Each structure stands twice: as C-alpha cells, then as structure tokens.
Amino acid sequence: MQLKLENIHKSFGSGENKNEVLKGISCTVESGSICVLLGPSGSGKSTLLNIIGGIETADEGTIYIGDEKLEDMNEKKLSLYRRKHLGYVFQAYNLVPDLTVKENIEVGAYLSDDPMNLDEMLNMLGLWEHRNKMPNQLSGGQQQRTSIGRAIIKRPEILLCDEPTGALDYKTSKDILTLIEDVNRKCGNTIVMVTHNDALKNMADRVIKLRDGAVRSDKKNETKIPVQELEW
Amino acid sequence: MKNPLYKRIPREFKRNIGKNIAMFLFLTLTIGFCSGYFIATGSLSSRLAENYDKYLTEDGHFTLSKEIDEALLKTASENDAEIYELFYKDKTLKNDHVMRIYKLRDKVDLLTVYSGRLPEKDDEISIDRLYARNNDISIGDRIEIDGKKLTVTGFSVAPDYTSLYKKNTDFMFDALDFCVAFVTENEFESMDDSGLVYNYAWMYRNRKMDETQKHDKSEKLMNSLSDTSADELDDLKESLLEAVFSGEIKLSQAKITEENVPPVFTDFIPDDQNSAINMATEDVGGDKIIVMWLLYITIAVIALASAITTKSTVEQEASVIGTLRASGYRRGELIGHYMVISLISTFAAAIAGNVIGYTFMNGICASMYYGSYSFPGYTPYINSEAFIMTTFVPVVIVLSVNLIMLARLLSLPPLQFLRHELKKKKKTRSIPLRFGKFTSRFRTRVILRNYQAYIVLFVGITFANLLLMFSLIWNPLLDSFRDTILDNVIAENQYFLKAPKETNLPDAEKFAVYTLKNDNGEDITIYGITDKSKYIKGADFSGDKFYFSSAYADKYGVSAGGEVHFKEKFSAKEYSFVNESTYNYPPSLCVFTGIDNFRDIFDKEDDYYTGYFSNKKITDIDDMYIASVIGRSDLTGSADQLENSVGFVKLFSIFAVAVYILMIYILSKMITERNSRSISVLKILGYKNGEISSLYNLATGIVVIISMLVSMPLIAWLIKFVYYAMMQRYNGWMTFYISLEIYPEMFVTGCLCFLAAYLLEMRRVRKIRMNEAIKDIE
Predict the structure, then answer these.
(1) Quick one: which of A43, B45, B248, B590 has the fewest CB in 10 Å?
(2) What is the residue range of A197's domain?
C-alpha cells in the first residue's frame, strides 16, 4: 500500500509558546518498501509517524493511504484504518503486562479476520519456548520480538516502527532489524521506521532525513545492504 | 523550608476530583448519619436514665387475684419495698383495640405530658402519644369507652410504658392496637370493673443499688411474698379444718371461696424483666453498637479501597519515588505524602458529618425511635463520645489501613523503585491459561493481575450485600410469619376462662394452660390437650408425652428426645420434660401434653380446665367468665407492629447501593488508570472503545457477579446467625425466613450498580488518549 504525504504541518501550543514541529512535509513511500525516517531529536520524525498512524492529526496537509485520504476519516474510520492496515512497533515495546508472550501476540491476531498462524509466528520470532512467560520475565530483545509479532500477525499493509532498537544493545538491535527485514521480504508490507541511527539508512529503500520539521533530503537507496552486514 | 511535595497535594486532589468528592460525600453522609444517630441515642438514653429518679419509675410490679392484704404489705415492708396501688382496667374499644386505663399517678411512675394537658375533669382522658399518632387521634377528639365518650386532653408518657407491651410475655410491643390512658380518680372509679387488674408497683426505700443487688433483692421479695401468700392459704385451710373439728361450721361449709381466699399472685415482674420499661433502653443501646460497627466497617472498607488506589499510584510513580528516596527523602515523608489526601478527606468528612449530625440528622434519627417508643420530648445533648466515635476513630482507621499498606511497600530500597520491581518475588511466573477465547483469557489475566483490588471489591460487595439483604428480608419474613401463623392456627378462637364454665357448643374443646419459666427466664405455656383432639392433630395425648412447639424447638434448638428443664414462676419447684416430637406451631413458645398428664403434673383436679378451643364463637358463656380470647389478629399483631417498626431498615438498601457503586467505581477507576498505557496501545492497534471497555471493565463485572454469588449464601448464613442471636433478646419467636425472591432482587441491584459504574468507566476509557503510550518517547 502506497503512502503519500502532501504539505503536512503540525504545531503544538499556541501564541508565544507555539512550536511548529512539522513545516510542510511532503513525500511518498512506495508499496512494499522500507522507508527510514532519519533525524536528530526534535526533528519531528516521531510526530510524523504518529500522524501517519492516525494517533495525531495534522494541522494542515493531506495523507493518502492507497486511495483513501486520512483527513476524511472520523474517529471510527481511523480506528478501523489502524485495525485493518497498520501495525505499530514502539521503542518501549508497550506490551500488555498482564498477558503472556503468546497472549500479547493474540492481542494483534484478535483484530484480524485472517491472522497468521500463531504457533508459526512464535517459531519465526524465536519465542516458542518463551510463549507462556510474562513480559517482565523477558529480555528487551524478546519483548521487542513479541511487539513485532503482535504488529505483524494481523497481516498489516503498513508497519510503523518508532525507534524499534532505541532501547536495545548492538547485537539485539541487529537481530530485531533482521527480523523487520525478513518480515518485509516475506509479507511485502510497507515499513516506515523512525530512527536516529544513521547507519540504518543502508537497509532502506528510501531514506528521508528531517531537521527542524522539514525534509532535508529524500533519497531512494539504490544500494541496499542486508542488516547483518551493517556496522555502527 | 516546607516540603515542596506538599504543593502537589491540591493538584493531586484535583486530578482525582471525581473520586475524592464521591468519597468525601459518602463519608460525610455516613458520618453525618452515625453522628446524628449517636447524638439521638445518647440523648434518648440520658433521658430514659433520668426517668428512674425524676419520674420515680417503679422497681417492679405484681398483680394479684384480689386486693392486697396486710400480711403481704408487711412482708413487702420487711423487704424494704413500699407498695403503691396502680390498678388498671383493660377496656376493649369498638375497633377491638385495648385501652388500659389508669388513675392519674402522684407517687410512682409519674407521667410526662408530651402535648396538651392531663385530665382534670371526669369526662377527660389523656392517652399515649404513639398510639394517638398511629391511629390519627388528636387532642380534643372523643373516645368511647363502655358507652361513655371521653375527651382527649393530651398525650402523656408513662415511664413504665416506654414500649407499649400489653403483656410482658408478648413477643412485641403493640402501639397500633394497644394504648395506656389516664383518667381522674372519680372517672376511674365510675367505670365498671370489667377488665380490672389488681396491679401493685413497688419501690425500694433504698434505691442506690447495682443491677445484681437489685436483682437479688427482687428475687428475695418475690419469694417472701409468694411464701406469705402460700402460708396464708395454708392458714386458711388449717383454720377451716379447725372450725370443722371444733364444730363451728359444717364440713360442707368448709370451702375456699372468692371471699375468704387470700390474694394469689398472677404476675410478678421486677423492672429489669419488664419489657415495657427496658425494651426501649435495650433497643437504643443495642442499635448503637450495630451502627457503631456499621460505621467502622464502612470506613475500613472505604479506607481499604483508598489504600489500594494509593498503592497503585505508588507503583505507577515508582521511578519518581526511587529518585526521591535516592536523593535523601525519608520513607516517612513519602508515606505521609501519599496518605495525606485520604486523611484530610476523612477528617474533613468527619467534621462536616458532625455538623450535619448536630444540626438536623439527630432529629431525623430520634424520630425513628419516636415511631416505635413512647418517649418524652426530645432534647439533643452534646455528646463527646459521639464526636470521638465519628471523628477520631474514622481518622485512626484510615491512618492505620493506609499505614499498613504503604509502610510495607515503601520499605523497599530505592533501586527497586527505580527498576519498577516492587514485589518481593522479582519475576512472577504466569499462571497458564490454555482454554477459552482470547477475550476470556484476557479478562482472567486482568483479574489475576489486580487480585488485591478485587479482594477489596469482594469485601465491599459482601458488606453492601449484607446491608441490602438485611433491608430486604423483613417484609417477606413478616409476611411469611403471618401466613405461617394463619396456616397453623389451632382454632379460630382460644377462650381463656377466669373460672370453669361449661358450654353447649359442640365445636368447643376444653384445654388447660399453665405457665412455667425456662432456664432463660422466658415464660413458656404448657397446654393440656384432650385425647383425640380436633384441634391439635397428629399427636398422641393419651399418655404422658410432651410435644414442643416448633417455635420453641427452633429458638432453643430442641429436637425430638431433647430434655428441657422448667421451673415454677413463683417458687423453686422444677419440672423436666422430654420432647416426643416437635409440633408445628410457630406463633408461641409452648409445650403440649395430654390434659390428664397435665392435671397430674400440676396437681389439678380431674376435671380441671382453663379454656376452650373453638372455631365458632361461644355465645353461651357470659363475658364476665372470660379472661381473654385469642383470635387470628392477636396472633399476627406482633408481626404488624414489627413491620411498623422496621420501616427505617429500608434506608439500609440506599446505603448499600451507595457502597456498591462507590466500591465498583473507585476500584474499576484504579484498574483503568493502572492500565491506561495498555489501553492506549490497544487503541493504537485499532481496538474500539467498547472492546477495550469489555476487556477491562467486564473483568470487574465478572468479579462483581462472582462476589455476589459467593457472598449471598455467606451473608444468608451470617444474617441467620445474627437473627437468632438478636431474637434471644425478645420473648417469643418468629421463624427465620429468607424469601427466594430476595436473591434475584439483590442480584439485579448489584448488576444495575455495576452498570452505572461501567458507564462511568467507559467514559474514562474513551478519554484515554493514544499518545499516552508514546509520551515517554516524545
């Protein structure tokens, strides 16, 4: 599913305290591609991701999800949009603490009429032996795997990842990014990943760099490198 | 420098303004009611205590078969007792109500005028205030007694009738159909002597005694008077024999007649056994203890709910607490900080509640008693005990519960707070849930995760259900009691005769009665029944078997084969009866045996009887031979009065609903808030508000339903236990019964309360924003 953003503006506060976080962002993410949003803290990348995810609304501009315009959607439709088309991976994992690994992934499966096979998913994520553990019994990497499982089990067309490796060590980060790469390859979903790790631009099909709420560069990556070969 | 954390308190209060205001209002109203109640009961108790000295309440009274004689007066005097004549005449009015008429008193049991004035002329009468209220009688109305109309001049209150008991053995007082009234001496004398009772009150010359001394003294007085009476009878028999032997009279003339027989005791009631004097005092005092515990349990339940929510806040703010502890803040400072809102709220509610209690609630509470008892005018007294009970104790309860909960939690080292590891066991193993739909397992997880909150909810619901059931049982219980009595009535009429008198009515069947006391001091009627009785069926009255009434068996737990000891009312003679089987007769504590056996036991003549059972009216016996007739309405009178008195119990259901809603609201709010981040994530993932609410709030609903189902049988058992204990205070017995209709009624009430809280919580779920889950990253 293609993502198209046109002239997105977003500000917080009002009057003297008004802070314009996004200043007319326009870009396109092709269906089935990996897009990395790069930028320092405060550049507006997470806000942009949240607007794409329908968590926040843009003050101005238009977002096209396939043929649909996000701004035309009411709360109910937005909810349905997230339910049917989106998967979300957070830096802080945000697993439901009361549920086991398996049940957390079922949280995603419940939303789909045709979810992926749960046991296969657990095996693919390397979580089979941890499936009955609670989140507080898992390492950060295992929690993020669970979070990815929850996001992709419902076969989303778009996967939004907000600093998915921000809280992980080097080796675990590589494993997680490999998993995201595999998901993209096997499932063909569009992935938008926010990161401040410059090295990750090499795993993307498209790299958009933001600074102070504006697009500094928007390039197609012709020479994608597999994650396992990346160094940082 | 002041602790800067204090600045957070008003903001924190404002953040949870709904919960805080709800708790404050609930506590204020609860404390207001209890404070008003304690002030009212304290004032009433003081007023009743004053009666003894101020209005010269009797130390007891007895009734005789005829006027007292010198011998008895001398015996009384030797026992430090002054005897006062308090004759009365029981007059049946046209509406079948009984009016007990006394002369105006001036030496004992002095009257208070509630309103109007005492009678001054011969055609005037003052009546009991409560009876007048129950029967819409006003001052100036005229009451017809024995065909003569008397004008009501006022409403009077007698200290020996604060509860309108017609007979001391009655199960319940009767302010609906029974009244005490006062007329001038002339008027009293001019009335005919039907219903005249030779009643004498006594007062000890030395009235400064404790209860035990007084009880012993009364026992001694009773034995002395009884002995004197027996001696007089023996003397009479002896003198008659002597007269026969000496030839002064013929043998046929040697008879004990109404004229020469000495007065015989028909009743003897020291004041400590007089329900008409003590019932009000005991009821006021007994209810005070119930209300006190009700208050403390309510405060404890609310304090628990509040402490659980505070604990949840501490868990959510673990990293801040860890930082503060690491920075040097002491544990005590943080404990104080987290419980200050609960304490201030409780204290403020206690003050506001006391203001309400002192200003108007005490009047409302007093009026509940004025609906059952004949008290003099009401004056509220300042009551320091009530203030302590409703201010100091609630604050201490809240302090203790919060302290226990927080002190343990905040004793963890700062590092554990920083790591959000607030449990002794660092890694909790999950309980495997392999079956059921995902949503069911999700809800089960919510319940398991929040089990402490749900335990508190269970306690709260159990308490609310207890109140609810207590408020709902009475009407069906009284209806059932009435129906059971009417279904099991021995005969349409029981005639009690003053002297043997034959009737030609074929329907009539003779019986004999005698009254004994059991070990509990309660009067028990022993019936002598003719063999092959038409009225008492299914029992063999040909031999010496005893059949205990179901009321007795139920109250004292006597089963078939059980042996019970009884003793004479006015002597030490004892009897022992074995229950052959229980006879289904719920209205009265009595024992049935064959009339021949009865005559043998009580040493009566072979043709002795005292009355008739009859389904038809006996018309061929003159009224002057009939002491009393018990019909259906007499048997159900206590149920009618009780129904009138327990009306206020319905207030409990309102209170129960408030506890229900508050508990569900506070705890489900806490659970929603504790899971706000997960709820936010679920929203981001595309869950609808209704779905989220059904996951979290329905988990609460499941606990509510389980709590109701589990608590109901527990409560039924507890109420039955309390009921049996409570009924021991009363003479007689009322079969315990819980209508099955109460259970669905309670269930529906609980569900509706949950629904109200559910809708509020659904609003809260809707309000949780999606960026809650991402705010740490921003």
Answers:
(1) B248
(2) 32-51+73-222
